[in-house]
Amino acid sequence: MSKEHCFYCFDALVAYFELRPVAEPTFENEEYPLFVTWNTSKNGDMTDLVLRGCIGNFSAMPLHSGLKEYALTSAFKDGRFPPILKKEIPSLTCHVSLLVNFEKGENYLDWEAGTHGIWIEFRDTNGRKRTATYLPEVAKEQKWTKEKAIESLLRKGGFRGTITKDVLDGIILTRYQSQKAGMTYAEYLAFR
Questions:
Q1: Do residues 119 and 133 make contact, with C-beta atoms less than 8 angstroms apart?
Q2: What is the pTM of this model?
Q3: Which CATH superfamily is domain 3-100+179-191 in?
């Protein structure tokens, strides 16, 4: 994991707006499940970040195509936010998370905030299977208890009913870790 991954994501976004090809990556084309996260920062650094888009994939994919695809998908297709505009680029930061060490949890509380990302499977009130995930840093950044994180994750995944003990006990939890790097726009320009 390196800043080169973040540079490549920034370059994919900038190239999209400049209508030019993306620079060829110099890093290995290994396969990983991955997420690309865009934040805005009022200071142009890694503090005071506001989420702007975060989408990834749990299927291992080649880094060259995967990072390019998810850099643009998270910038333009995260349904929680309007698409990123060209004028926002100087205020952006990019984080890349390569997901590793997947383990089945014994129950919905079998994970550590700040260490593990969590992916849950559950049934909604109509019996449909749903899934949702939070990357390892989310619960800690939000200062959530494990219970609050699971409740929020159920809601994120579309559960609209009352969260009962049976609902919680029916959760299938997978925990994972991530190798993460981040880069500001200023760092991207210097890296260029």
A1: yes
A2: 0.90
A3: Hypothetical protein ph0010; domain 1 (3.30.700.20)
